[in-house]
């Protein structure tokens, strides 16, 4: 069996929902407790939260985009399951920033995790530097590992040098094989709409990248819903760079409040222009272009 489940749970700081010890250990809780260790360094403070907070805020933001009839989700009949899978992809969108063996062992060309260790030799903090877009592909690799040859697959490595399986997380949440493929694609695409807004990517580039991810995991169809969800996960990511109020979700039915990890961080929603009409206008233009290309 290619992946192995981590059977121990770390006692870490964070919201009390994830600190409770239960048997058997839920895989969602295991992964998110790992996230609490990861602290973004101060070289380029992009988030009001670190990996744990940002992942939760992005999760809540993605849920709200559909539940609250956001302008980003109007004009399309999303199902309850669409909302759930978008929120799961949002929760996992930055998983590629963590668990990287090459950053633990120092074999990466430019980046390395910096570990703080307690007297028992247990890591208490892992400081990492933003890698811009590298984590996007790594996150896709983690989640699409079922479709990669064994020797090419990436594994998420815990702070205790043990692989944490992603597959049992999907099993725990009753996510089907086709739905797993969708989540992997959304994680892989979570940076791309922002690249269009920055002028780094054309509509054709965006659609070709979407098709490449779908082709890798043998996902069909490449339709308007897939395109819309690929943009919504980016909007949730930007929104989740600042505090987002918790709300009950299918993954976290009774969320606790998590404090803002870093203050005086400018809102990314405004910094990247999402408080203006331009991003939504570009989104509508992308949808129109896609309908012509089909």
SSE inventory with pairings:
Blueprint: H1 16-19, H2 27-35, E1 38-40, H3 51-67, H4 80-92, H5 101-104, E2 114-117, E3 123-128, H6 134-143, E4 156-157, E5 163-164, H7 167-172, H8 177-188, H9 192-198, H10 203-217, H11 224-239, H12 268-271, H13 278-293
Parallel strand pairs: 1-3
Antiparallel strand pairs: 2-3, 4-5
Describe the fold and architecture.
The chain is mostly helical and 294 residues long. It has one domain (24-293). Helices cover 45% and strands 6% of the residues. The protein has helices at 16-19, 27-35, 51-67, 80-92, 101-104, 134-143, 167-172, 177-188, 192-198, 203-217, 224-239, 268-271, 278-293, and strands spanning 38-40, 114-117, 123-128, 156-157, 163-164. It has a 3-stranded mixed beta sheet, with no helix packed on it. Helix 3 packs across helix 11 (224-239), helix 4 (80-92) crosses helix 8 (177-188) and helix 4 (80-92) crosses helix 11. The model is unreliable at 1-14 and 16-25 (pLDDT under 50).
Any descriptors?
294 residues, mainly alpha, two-stranded antiparallel ribbon, 45% helix, disordered N terminus
Number of domains: 1
Mean pLDDT: 87
Residues in helix, %: 40-55%
Strand order of the largest sheet: 1-3-2
Outline: globular
Please report the distance between the alpha carbons of the first and last residues: 40 Å
Order of helices and strands: HHEHHHEEHEEHHHHHHH
Number of strands: 5
Gyration radius over CA: 18 Å
Low-confidence stretches: 1-14, 16-25
Question: Beta-strand percentage?
Answer: 5-15%
Question: What composes the largest sheet?
Answer: 3 strands, mixed
